[in-house]
What does this fold into?
Amino acid sequence: MNNNASKMVAFVVSDIEDYFSVEIFRGASQVLENSGYVTVLMDTNSSLQREQELLESINQRSFDGLLLQPLTNDAQEIAKRAVRQFPIVIMDRELELSAWPQVVTNNYQASYNATRDFVAQGIDEVVVVSSQIQSASTRRQRYQGIKDALQSGQSLKTIEFNESDFSVEEVLNRLRRMIDPRKKTVLFSLKERWLLNFLPPLMREGLITSENSIVTGFADTNLIESICPFARVISQHPFTMGQRAAETLLMKLKDNDQAVPGLQII
It folds into this structure.
């Protein structure tokens, strides 16, 4: 234990507008505050440049530790910026060659299992809606799970866009052209926010109905099911993830050499 500890922990999330990021913070801050720590929330706003700037700024402050929901897929890039010798725990995004403990969701298996259930119902195609898939390990794992679960003859269509700079109407027009109401279609969103944006107008226009569609995606609230009673969402547990990450950080704060699990799956 460091006798000169500031009792402050930096908490960096990828997008504070996402309920998931807010709930991770709530779970972590509850645990940390019970142990006498102040949790300082910082938002990268889905910007890699902003993430780099925040990591470099944290080096200049007297934080005792860092909880990070990274945008980058590169652990070495984080190590280059976060050069202080203090405990770090990665949340939500699984990084290859990570030197730090990670607390994540089993995104691949959840997507695979859900898609296999839909395949058994005789679907024709899956339309995936996502911000840039390759920019986050969570999206890559979810997308790969969907792909691997499909069978011959079932098509996979994908709409990607820039999360920080996109037109709702442009994405809607792409969806309108892509969804064929004559086919049994799964609308699969890799993030709850996109269903909240795009699902209501598609339902009003009759492109998504209980007869011709299955609506699913990763969700953190019950909002989607309120909008679309026939939706079958994949529930996540961000509050629990935040708690687990904070508990792991506390163990490292007590003894940074203490062994903790390298990868924890919620």
Notes: The chain is about 40% helix and 20% strand.
